[in-house]
Every structure is written in C-alpha cells, then in structure tokens.
C-alpha cells in the first residue's frame, strides 16, 4: 500500500495535519518508535506533543501529524489507548491490502485459462457476492453462477438480456456525477428494489465498454469488495474483449439494436434499448441483406453512407440493413443502380410494419438466397416476394407428395422437352408470367411471334390445355414452381429457374 493511500485511509478515522509527501513509497510494515528502514511507517511517540507518522526514503522523509479525534479539540496528543488503536487500525489496513493482493493474484492466475465464465464464478467466490457484467448498451454479457441472485428483479434482467430502465438511468446519473476512473467503484440504490448496487466502469483498449455490478445481499459492502471490484472488472473486460463477447465498438449503438432484433432478443429488452438510444421505430420498413466477396466493414460503411437513417450491421457474414420508409418511397430506389454502386448481391424483403418481425424477414431473405442458388438464379437483385411460393414448398417435409399436385400436362411437356430438345415448358412459364400477352411473351423469349404461336399450339395439342382460360394459369404456375423446385432438390436438371 502506498504511503499516501495509507494516510488517506487513516484520515477517515483520525485527524491528520501537516502532511508532507516528498516521494510516495510502498508501506509493508508499521512500527512504533524511531527507525529508518524503507517501506516502513514509523509511529513516533514523543514525550509531549502530537504523534508523527514518518516514512524514510533515501535522504527524504514523508511525514504527517496525528491529532486526537475526540470532542475536546484542545487535546494535542494521543493517549496510549489511542496510540494502540492507531497502530492496530493501520495494521488492519495493511492486512486487508495483503489479503486483497492474494485474492487478486489467484484471480489473475485463473484468468490464464482464458475462460471468462470460470473467472467470474471464481471472482464471485473470492468476493463472496454475485457479479454481473453489462456492456455500455446495458446488455447482460455474463454473470456469476456461484451464488443465486438475491434480487428477483435481476433475474428478470438475465431472462430478458437487458438491464432494467431504472438501473440504466442510475448508471447514467452516476456517469454524469462522478469522475472517470477505472480504479473506483460507486454505490447507488435502485428505487424499485431494496438492494444496493456496487458498480465499477470497465475499459477495453482505453474505451469505456461496460460495467461490473455487485449486489449487497442486504449486507454493507466491505472495503475489500469496493477495492477489488474495479480490478476484477478489468481482468474480465480483457477476457471478454478478446473472446469477442463485447460488440464491435466501431459499430454504432443503432447497429447493436438491429443485431438484437436479428438475434430475437426479448421484445421488452429491445424496447428498453430503443429508449436508451432515442431511436424512433419507423411505421414502415424494408430489410435488405447484402452478400459480397469484398471486406464487409467497407460495404457496411457504404450502405450507411447511402442510407444515413438505416440500421446497418454485419451479421452472419452478411451486411444487413433496415431501411425506414413507406413502400411508395422505397419503390423510388433504383435497386439495380444501387447494386452496381455497391458491387454485391442484394436480397430485398417486402415492406412491413412490425418492427419485431425483422428476424422473420431476415430468415425469409436467407431462405430466398439459398433457393436462388438451388434454382440456378444468378440475379444480383433478388426480391423475397418472388420466392414466397418456393419457400412454402421448401418447408414441406414430405416432398414426394408434391408430385401429386403437379398438373400431368406440365409433366408431359417436360418429358417432351427432354426427348426433343424443345423449350415448351419455358414458353408456357413465360406466357403465364406475361399474363397471356403474346407480343410481350415473344419479346421476353427473343423469338418471332409466329414461332410463339406454333409453340402454344403444340402445347395445347400435347396436353389438351386451353391456354386462353386464365383460370388455369394459377394451377399451371403452381405446377411449374413445384416441378422446378423438385428438380433442384433432386439435382436433376441444371436448367435455369423457369419461374420467379
């Protein structure tokens, strides 16, 4: 313990004056009498006058005068009883310090295993209290399993993954009213609970990344707990940081909000975080999933530049952006132009109104991405709505039953195409896609209109279908979708998807 630190603690119980610290020194022993051993605090007892605390360092001396903390301020010297109390109290302080160092050394040794859960459990045992780590967005990152949490409200925090809003406000008040320090711990009450909290700041690579929290279990916090908590916190923040348990601190807190939505974190927790960061949930929104071979962080920055109001995050090796706006506004976006600018594949959801449906929209987008590969669709801009039917079919476990729903005429055309190297199935698909408009169909197929008419006549002759009956189109389109999907599942035909 430093000489200055020891004097500071003694001053909480005794009156110290005339303090002179010429060179701070570590104090390892305390003696009554006069001596000049280094790292030793001497309590000099003179015949008259007050006591002196002396610490000799080379040719210099640290010193302070001790006066009696009694009601009669005329007393200038300590009695023998008070001298013994001073000596004993100073040694108690040193003993606590030594015990803390032993405990901290054990915690440091434990940290060599790089298992932060093991360290936080062991640290809780050493501190004889429950511990919790939250990041600077008030997410619960880790907590000790050594003891049960005494406060039922904090079990709710664990369940929802976020701190309660009253605790968050308490933390924010503490940050505003206290000096920045990695060595200090702060105690404050919670209006919704009878338990006190002891909190210390956590830093990783010189940035504030979160807090370590201890609960009093309705017992006063000891000096050892108050002093060890910040040191334990720094060990844990280093382990968590290198274990990637903390978020990427280059990403904004808004990005973390989107990440939590994609993870499906408790709805109440997300609502708390929107309050904390002051985010206004849009009435309508669209999710865009971007995949690229380039550096994702660079792509993420480009998307943020293109859409300043969007939530953007790197998630599961994709860049995901939640764009606020109504459907009419989003339609004005030229997706092909944006794709050329970003040089990536884009999967675009429908517009939706439920903020908490974001995870479901992401699942649909990834499913559409997977199906586009199976169906040999190499388009760089994919719209999820074009894959809704295929996604529903893909979720059917007994896929062999799908063949029963395929119109026999479609199956007959497919067999005819394979035998004669024709494109009647593709022609039928495009004809339905164009709503029976012959000129548009011919242009899409890059064939003459007479060629199209010949093909349609052939289709009608082989299948007996009346292609002028629009009521048949939905059934035929479903059959084409199912046949296309089953072919991709079986790995049979390598032809490109016929229907979007």
Automatic annotation (TrEMBL):
InterPro entries: CdaR-like_regulators, PucR_C-HTH_dom, PucR_C-HTH_sf. It holds the Pfam family HTH_30. Residues 424-481 form the PucR C-terminal helix-turn-helix domain. This is PucR family transcriptional regulator. It comes from Loigolactobacillus binensis.
